[in-house]
Specification:
alpha+beta, eight-stranded antiparallel beta sheet, 12 helices, globular
Amino acid sequence: MKQRSITLSFEAREYLAAVETDGSLLAIARNLFTRNLGLTAGSGAVLVVEVGYEEIGAPILRAAGKEGIDLTVFMVGADQASNDSFVERLTTRMSDVDASLFVGSYDGLPGAFRRALIATAKGHRRHAHLAGITKSVMLQAVRGDHNEAHRFGETLNRALGDAQRIDVNSAMGTKLHIKLGPMGWHHASSLIPTGKWSYLPGGQVLTTPVSVDGVLVPDGGVFMPDATEHPRSPRLAIHFDKGQVTRIEGIEESDPLMELLGRSTDCKRVGRLAFGTNTGLIVSVGALLQDRTAPGFHLTLGHPSGELTGAKWSCPVEVPLFVRRADVLADGTPILVRGRYARNLREAQTG
């Protein structure tokens, strides 16, 4: 079947309806509407599927029919994602419904297009962003116990509270001192509230820091914009001063990571720091969409997700860095102990 942009909804529906559906994904897809987006029969939604992601889009279309959701569908390739008149028509349609979903890659479509979709999440609308989704991530993470992860995220959010300092250490050599400001923490849950958006699978408590100083050894992975892991991640030592990368040990100046960070000053700037709250994930698997929610400490260079954190600056590039088995203190109170959440947090969750 030929893959192409289909910008007429009835044609896109017919196209996806003809794609063979994996029955194991149907129940998960139904939960996207009822659990994650909180929709009921008669609700309206828009599904935007990147060309090449029909395997995921097809069961979502079928699930909408099972749940009585009035679904408008678009199949989008890079050609239409760069067409301003189409993007305006699409986002106008999205603003008229209760919720929307994007299913596609991290970097196959322009960043401006993806940000335009996210920006529609306001008022009564919700948006689920499944960028980088795969069948295996759907089966492993999206079908997990999101209620448990949500409760733990709320517990962690309260524990971090108004902390002004985060200290991060690891046996591999990470030693960071992080100053926080007035922005506070945002809980990006898989249970998406009215007027908000979240990646799915969700499960992060995040903020944009004021400054970061020290060194980070990303033994849990450095992910490039195409969501592939840098092959030398565990061997790198990334040095920070006042929130900016000053040097990286372990790679040559010609390395693609150095080229990426050299595009602008903000590419070297710490955009976000986060704690993964998907307590059902035991180990990282090398899939960014899933690993970013795994319990532990994460730091992202570049894009600050100002829609969530309140940061007033932006950057088209984002490079997530993960640290395994970190010890983390918030104003001196343990948050992580060798990569596991502190006992007081776990007891508060089960209490």
